Amino acid sequence: MSTLDLPDEWAIRRDQLRNKRPPQNLQPLFHLLHPKQFDRQFLDQMCDLTTDIRTLAKTQHGLARLQGLLSHKRAMLYFTQPSTRTFLSFNNACHILGIKTSEIRDSATSSEVKGETLEDSIRTFSSYVDVIIMRTLGKGLAEKSASLMDSISRPIPIINAGSGKDQHPTQALLDIYTLERSLAHRGGIDHKVIGMMGDLSRGRTARSLAYLMKNYQGVELVFIAPDRFTMEPDILDYLTRHNIRHSQTAELTRVISELDAIYVTRIQSEHDASDGSRDINLADYTVDLSNIDLMKEDAVIMHPLPRGAELSPGIDDDPRAKYWRQERNGMWMRAALLTRIFGAEDTLYEIAR
Amino acid sequence: MSTLDLPDEWAIRRDQLRNKRPPQNLQPLFHLLHPKQFDRQFLDQMCDLTTDIRTLAKTQHGLARLQGLLSHKRAMLYFTQPSTRTFLSFNNACHILGIKTSEIRDSATSSEVKGETLEDSIRTFSSYVDVIIMRTLGKGLAEKSASLMDSISRPIPIINAGSGKDQHPTQALLDIYTLERSLAHRGGIDHKVIGMMGDLSRGRTARSLAYLMKNYQGVELVFIAPDRFTMEPDILDYLTRHNIRHSQTAELTRVISELDAIYVTRIQSEHDASDGSRDINLADYTVDLSNIDLMKEDAVIMHPLPRGAELSPGIDDDPRAKYWRQERNGMWMRAALLTRIFGAEDTLYEIAR
Amino acid sequence: MSTLDLPDEWAIRRDQLRNKRPPQNLQPLFHLLHPKQFDRQFLDQMCDLTTDIRTLAKTQHGLARLQGLLSHKRAMLYFTQPSTRTFLSFNNACHILGIKTSEIRDSATSSEVKGETLEDSIRTFSSYVDVIIMRTLGKGLAEKSASLMDSISRPIPIINAGSGKDQHPTQALLDIYTLERSLAHRGGIDHKVIGMMGDLSRGRTARSLAYLMKNYQGVELVFIAPDRFTMEPDILDYLTRHNIRHSQTAELTRVISELDAIYVTRIQSEHDASDGSRDINLADYTVDLSNIDLMKEDAVIMHPLPRGAELSPGIDDDPRAKYWRQERNGMWMRAALLTRIFGAEDTLYEIAR
User: Fold this and answer.
1) Is the Cβ pair B85, C129 closer than 8 Å?
2) Do the Cβ atoms of A112 and C307 come within 8 Å?
């Protein structure tokens, strides 16, 4: 098992942090809209920044200093598609950095806004706050909002916190961070065998994660799904074009012992009725006490949550289960993202001294 | 009338506070679930801490210092049973101490969470915050959540902010505080005659307060209720076992002049239809201008609020009416509770110097 | 075009602010209920204070200091009539000054409160916070709440954030501020020709603005509306009594070139069905690319937002379009209002040094 969680390691990190300077090659980041914005350098910088913020937050003094980092900023959380998890994660990321938050979380509250165009609503929010974090049911609305911002005299950043079945770039970031960290004692994501299981055809989290593998060396992907839910051709073609090894199977037991990590997702019941998933034995796409011992001793089990029957609470205490940490990492990664967007790295490393 | 509210008294308290040290015998408090956790020492310590925080908050400088006390903490207010009063009281208690708050206040907002188990929702909240304050319609859910916390590697405290018709321990604390403070010039709760009136069979506030009287010396309880709404046998047996004197009557006028305090509660209309409370003359269980002068000159009138017709706004200006102060005390007691749960007493008394 | 927005001007203002003292003749302000409270001195002081706060907020250091100004205060935003724009404006005004906010924004959340009288709800809020900002569907409720406060021993200020079709005094303040600022290079509002267009009979914003013109010298008002929506006789009589020149027309093109400013409002569709506004050609009461060039070069175009078809997004980039700035001014004016209500001007100018 990894030594990553020993208190000693955090003490060492704290010592290192005192002498650290922000990277010299930081590109300014404004909107965060799509995982295609992420290259290896960006991903590595974000992972590093996330760990540095977590390190600082390990002490009460560090937490107190962090709160002053962006306390002059105000955020709007505009969630017309309810998502308690993503909302709370962002809200608390803001709170960690001292950012004041305003929220719209359901259609009833935003009834008046509905009388106007999305553009006018977004521009209104931009009158009052310094960043808009938006989650919508429809696709493309974050991009549309970002375009509006780029056309006005006082633009503010737009963060896409999930747009329908489309894109969820901050989920992709936290997934990469958790995978990289959990595999750090073995050299990180490079050269690992990573399984993805569940409804791969419609699950945007698995699709995004597969897409981002082009940024890592020698990764092999194993897609585990019933026939009806296999990864779509667009991603398979993309992987082929980028020379990323990948294979598909409908049988978890045939591959489970070879995986360095498995990313489990739901076969969502709401889609089931029309396409015959009732014929699928969901138990075949489940990680639980009956098969976890077939996995490598230091394998990594992840899940975007919320979970269904595909991930048994019975394995929550297994050291390989990283999904609760993954969830918590989301908050820290989002704090790092806000720090990056507001260009506050210099101040962060000053604080850490 | 009491001299408790003269500015001079607060000035004296402020002077005393400068030299005060936290009690030496403080037991750590983690979850707050049930009034049965409260013994006399705990109640006295909490009353004392509440008054000290109020004292500190009497000046702008003190308020400014208090905000730094727990500004590194984050709270989740998870209120699936709406309760504006308890919500606002806790929310502002958090704000007084600098605690950042996230909230779920209705079923619509928590729709996604509903797709998962309570355990997974609670564990998710615990990923993001440092304390969960929860109010639920069903009973036992705070206890269940606390058990989950006790089983994981990164537990956080659970505060029960009311669970259906079951328990409401922070209401019991604020009731005790108000009673003790309002009677302080006469030696506190010990040896007092305390009336409880209204629907005593289903009202959890009166039940909890009666239960807590075992912690005080020589208290005599007088239950005033129509036959259908008398105190349940479990509490009566409990009082008998603990040698707490108590009596019952259906006629307020027979006992009103003997009471040192009266705790008025509603006979709730929503229960009425099925059990014939329509036959009851509610005016018989009312405190108003027609009978307040029958009360002792320094009697204490309390009510958990919101009120119905049983408590006339006409007596709000009477110095014996303590229910608005009782409501406000709830905020201060909850601030004290959070201070205690996070073990911040030492810092508090440093701040006060 | 005005030079008001050049960075240089803000630098000059910042320098001036360092030597500034608060006015000596400040009257304490408690409740803010109705535009009739505003005289010229008050309006000028509020405009001045708003600009000073904006000036201070131009730097990160200033913003950080502003957050400490009222960080010991807590506000209740009680919005039983949803209004996203006004809510966000007030919420962020509070955040700028460090005021902690609690909110009730829809009927579902306030269900429990509904079981009690408005007086008891308002008194409950006053137990927990230092100011109540309320927006209601019914008229007169802010006044009623203020009367309650004036009768109790621990009153807090009430701010009317809009009461149905009745009054919306903070909108009037931000309209005055925007008009005064936008015309500052030409001597301010005095002696200007100001058009008001749209549904003037029911639009409270235009009515309030017309009413406040008695505070300025030599203003001429031009009401532009279809016959069914002309300004009501009460306002016309009032203007006549106060010797304020005014005229009415149904034809924008006849007057557009003479206006120093135009305040555009909606002819609201929800009223249309019953009174035949379907016969009206709404295009006649619209500002867009087809007629903006008929306006003076330095005319001011305002709108309370949200807009309908009467104000074309096509003119948003025109330097005469001030409505987005007007919206943003609302937040700054509300921050100034809170500063004034809490009597924090002295501290503000200390901060600015």
Assistant:
1) no
2) no
